[in-house]
Amino acid sequence: MQTNESLEHAMAALAQDPYVGANPELHEFWQAAARHELLVKTCTQCSRAHWYPRMFCPFCASEDTEWRKASGQGKIYAFSEVVRAEPPYILAYVRLDEGPVLLTNMVDCDPTALHIDQAVKVLFRPAQEGRSFPVFTPY
Amino acid sequence: MSLNGKAYIAGAFEHPTRFAPEKSVAQLHVECAAGALKDAGLSFADVDGYFCAGDAPGGSPLPLADYMNLKLKWMDGTELGGCSYLAHIEHAAAAIAAGKCSVALITLAGKPRSQGQAVGTAPRVLSADRPETPWDPPSRWGIAGIYAMYAMRHMHEYGTTSEQMAWVKVAASHHAQHNPHALLRKVVTVEDVVTSAMIAKPLHRLDCCVITDGGGALIVTRPEIARSLKQPLVKIRGCGQTIKTNNGGAIDVTRTGAERSGPLAFDEAGIVPADIKYASVYDNFTIMVIAQLEDLGFCKKGEGGKFVADGNLISGVGKLPWNTDGGGLCNNHPMNRGGITKAIEAVRQCRGQAHPAVQVKNCDLALASGPGLVLGDGHAHATVIFERE
Fold first, then answer.
1. How far is CA B2 from the centre of its chain?
2. How many contacts, defined by CB atoms under 8 Å, are there between A and B?
3. Which chain B residue has its CA at the smallest distance from A58's CA?
4. pTM, to two decimals
5. Is B241 exposed, middle or buried (0-12, 13-18, 19+ CB in 10 A)?
6. Mean pLDDT of B122-133
7. How far apart are CA B104 and CA B76, in angstroms?
8. ipTM score for this prediction
9. Which residue ranges make up each domain of chain B?
10. How far apart are CA B329 and CA B209, in angstroms?
């Protein structure tokens, strides 16, 4: 569970993050992420969700998009244990139940037990610049 | 307007260095330019068009044009990652066909080896204003991990194996043994590849290309100028370039931009893949050769693993002689960008100037093809078809 103190810390950290500052139209996403909620931009014209979030729909070019709270669940599209890195980590593409695939990490898991199409759910981790970003773990 | 026959490659030069701590990046560019001009029988005073990409100091044609004191009518700094120089060939041919310049110089140079860059596994750091960057860097994504996922997905969908991927490296090593400048000249076996250290599962160390200093340059010119020079004539027969975007997250990482740049080039050339006698295909990782050969139409999608196995890419042995200089896997990957060396070896093959041990007989049609930047994250792709006249 996220404590009030950690939520306040995560919100305050957003102000220092250059990646957040460079894209003012995306603040809602990062504020939700600080609360450990995953938002996905969805087009109200063609109904498709896309990733990474934009203010217009990359499929039908409509500017009529909205943030929707995602289920936070998806399936592994591909993954790799980067064993040469220090420390090793698991890079992954996860296909959200809402449709789009995002680049992320698998965490809190045994890399030898992972497989494509495995069901996973979202967690949040602090990026070094300050924002919270979505990672995934099997469930 | 078709570019078929509108321009020729008059000069080609690959810098022999693979480690150049004593030289500046600008000096390496100049040495490449001088080498290509000498190869063509031209001089710096003849150059009226200049093409370079993100490796050029300042990221624009201007600083190097000033350094070389060029007198230009046409400049192009199109930055498409490793395939920039293949796209530059098309841009140069278009500029020449439009009468905007007559002698186009394309250069690439850099020194990641002497700068100690851990290119494959270091997290990529990109500027904050690029729209995709807030989302990707926290995952610490590096090139090897991305292409490893690509390999895993190809294995999952098509049954491609590590041994099949290893055959790509084996073929490159068979060619590199004859190249005195190649960084890695030792012939390796499938077993050597699959037992080499794991980098990012399922990619082994020998599935990954080399990191080298160096560079290369090309001279593209009008047909009548090319005919006045001494080198065998190499015509630009067809070109294609594209971007395969992240597609709003609806990605398919088993397919490369070659499925678009290839048909564009083949259509302009008026030929089919079976007509190609020699292919340079960008080999940053072994899996990419398999996927691009499929996407270019040399075999059916999903059958690239079988296609490359059993030495089918080895000159004199297999059906499709490929990367006969040793490619990025063994010879050279200057500035982590393999596009220009792919074109240079294709030109050598068309001229009959490849090493005799790897020279393809009657090499009248050759292809150079490759991606730029990163698959699944918006990558460019370019293909050029050359004809010996």
1. 23
2. 129
3. B248
4. 0.96
5. buried
6. 75
7. 10
8. 0.94
9. 8-114+209-388
10. 4
